[in-house]
Write a structure and sequence with these properties.
The structure holds two protein chains of two kinds. Chain A is mainly alpha-helical. Chain A has nine helices and no strands. Chain B has a three-stranded antiparallel sheet. In chain B, helix 1 packs across helix 2. Classes of the chains: A mainly alpha, B mainly alpha.
């Protein structure tokens, strides 16, 4: 392999690093590029690019989510937005389900923001004393979604007391319980627990017209699936 | 204020990449590509980690105190002052040991309970 070919391929790889968050790229971009070149020299282009393709597929979404959803700045912004929306809804007199959901977002957001400030640690450690692997950004969202299921269905029942809403509350409590069980199961079986959470999160996608539950649900599913894929070998063994 | 480190059992089960990186760093300090090579060699090619997965794991492991950067340059052949070397911390070694014990128990139970083709019952 010629120096020119290596330089060209390194340039292509460096341009692909743009997909990673800026902070991660600044800290590790040069080192990743160096590791890429080492591999290129030792294993040749085809095998290196197969590995790098799979690697980008797995690691880019994970780094983006870790960097964006878990930073204090984002957590603070989400909390602030939820608080402003909550005050606005109170001002215009909207019904309880949305108000209760936003109250939960605000309270959990404030709690999370204060916890990250106090601990000065990654939000994997959001809950003091918890297992790092038990609480990651998406499990916090899943717990929040479970609470929102119950609170929103309770609000709906208070707003419009009828038999179908009692049934809806029962179903939502069931899904929330599945989320809690899935999160607890993760301590013993991460993959089994994650699939349970994914199953219980799926109903949130049906509320796409409210946007927020669907986006949160989607983020949880992506986070859980990314973790499942990390729990298995990244690429199959070479034949 | 610094918090007490979590006990090793709290980190289990380890993600595949984390466990393999800890195993690769148990003997000596290594730089990124040496870790990638070692992980592949340790698993007979079954686990291959790319640069993104590896440095993503390294970032988390540094934050968790499982590994630390080293100033020593143990690989003079491939040395380049831009390279960063990493080594296992005491906590990292303890966590790695705990994971090995967990997997050993798991295997023991698996062999005890299941007839695995080619191995039979323990």
């Amino acid at each position: 392999m010629t120096d020119r070919s290596i330089t060209r391929q390194r340039r292509v790889y460096r341009s692909l690093l743009m997909f990673y968050p800026g902070s991660f790229r600044r800290d590790y971009g040069e080192l990743m590029s160096q590791a890429f070149c080492d591999r290129l020299l030792e294993r040749g282009a085809p095998r290196t690019w197969v590995l790098v393709g799979a690697d980008l597929w797995h690691s880019v979404p994970q780094q983006i989510m870790e960097a964006s959803l878990m930073s204090q700045k984002w957590l603070g912004s989400i909390t602030m937005l939820a608080a402003v929306a909550l005050v606005t809804l109170f001002a215009i007199g909207t019904g309880p389900p949305l108000v209760l959901a936003l109250s939960t977002v605000t309270v959990v957001g404030i709690f999370g923001f204060m916890a990250t400030r106090r601990n000065d640690r990654p939000t994997e450690y959001l809950f003091s004393g918890a297992t790092p692997k038990m609480w990651t950004w998406w499990t916090v969202l899943a717990a929040l979604l479970g609470a929102v299921y119950v609170i929103a269905a309770t609000g709906q029942l208070i707003d419009d007391p009828k038999a179908t809403n009692v049934g809806a509350l029962g179903i939502m409590i069931g899904f929330a319980a599945l989320i809690v069980l899935g999160l607890r199961l993760r301590a013993r079986s991460r993959i089994g627990g994650n699939w349970m959470v994914i199953f219980a999160t799926a109903p949130a996608l049906m509320f796409f017209w409210i946007v927020l539950p669907a986006v949160v649900g989607l983020a949880i599913i992506v986070g859980a699936i990314t973790e499942i894929s990390r729990a298995t070998p990244q690429t199959p063994a070479a034949a | 204020m610094a918090r007490d480190p979590l006990p090793p059992s709290e980190f289990l089960p380890l993600p595949t990449a984390t466990f393999h990186i800890l195993l690769a760093l148990r003997d000596e300090e290594k730089h990124g590509y040496a870790i990638m090579r070692d992980v592949e060699a340790l698993s007979d090619g079954a686990v291959k980690i790319g640069p993104g997965t590896m440095y993503g794991s390294i970032k988390r492991m540094l934050a968790e105190g499982l590994i630390e950067e080293s100033d020593e340059r143990p690989d003079p052949e491939m040395d380049d002052e831009r390279r960063r070397y990493y080594r296992c911390t005491g906590l990292g070694e303890a966590v790695c040991h705990a994971e090995v014990e967990r997997l050993t128990k798991l295997l023991k139970n698996a062999f005890g309970r299941t007839a695995i083709p080619g191995f039979g019952r323990a």
